């Protein structure tokens, strides 16, 4: 199944961490990449870039105050 994921955890200025889990039949690997001002100094996969974009979009709750 679809058990792998990428998750970006950012503060208000776009700094934080990007976590990526890759699951296979034999093992599971978890990678952490730093995020500074909305980007990472490390190469990001398409899935990681999508998670980063999603984390930077304000939610409806933020818009309502």
Structure description:
This protein is an alpha+beta fold and 65 residues long. The chain has helices at residues 46-56, 60-64; strands spanning 5-10, 16-23, 28-35. Strand 1 (5-10) and strand 2 form a beta hairpin. The mean pLDDT is 88.
- % residues in beta strands: 25-35%
Quaternary structure: single chain
Estimate the helix proportion, in percent.
10-25%
Q: Count of DSSP helices? A: 2
**What would the principal axes of the Cα set say about the shape?**
elongated
Distance between the termini: 38 Å
Report the radius of gyration as a whole number of Å: 13 Å
Q: What strand order characterises the main sheet?
A: 1-2-3
Average pLDDT rating: 88
Structural class: alpha+beta
> Secondary-structure element sequence?
EEEHH
- Report low-confidence residues grouped into runs of 5 or more: none
- The count of β-strands is 3
Biggest beta-sheet profile? 3 strands, antiparallel
Lay out the secondary structure.
Blueprint: E1 5-10, E2 16-23, E3 28-35, H1 46-56, H2 60-64
